[in-house]
Write a structure and sequence with these properties.
The chain is of the alpha+beta class and about 180 residues long. It is about 25% helix and about 30% strand. A hairpin with a 4-residue loop joins strand 5 and strand 6 (about 110-115). Pfam families: Peptidase_S26. It is found in: Cell membrane; Membrane.
Amino acid sequence: MAEIQQEIKAAGKNHESTKEYSLGEEILFLLAKIAGIILAFLLVFTFLFGLCRNQDASMGPSVKDGDLVMFYRLDKNYIARDALVLEFKGQKQIRRVVATAGDTVDITEEGLLVNGALQQEPEIYSPTQRYENGAEFPLTLNEGEVFVLGDSRVNATDSRIYGAVKVKDTLGKVMTVLRRRNI
């Protein structure tokens, strides 16, 4: 009986996996894990999300100069008051949607009119004025277009200059603003 128990113990020892890894193998395994995490992070921020630094004061006070904005690339179903990221003359801009497909936009002495209704914008502190040599008003938006303005209307380069923006040319919808203070 004792002989059988010894044979069972010996057989069990032969089947146990007690492989020891060298320090070099451990470091290589750790580096592979780090590379996998970095690759996953890059894929997520290339195809799903994006980061953009606000380069000017045209969206103040909601987005200030130097703030970082995180945006979602796949959501391009904009409604009025959404903030989006677009590219104009090689620079990323953050702008607010004020009108979507089918809307008629006009800028008069009274202010911003969408479909004939004067827009009440409590977070906008300066009047909305036309730019000379800018877009022609009234402007009716076609399917797949939005009209965007900066919150700081005096400082903004926006649809008053370059007209309606095609939704397919936008980079994505703003998800959150990361305040950058003394970084």
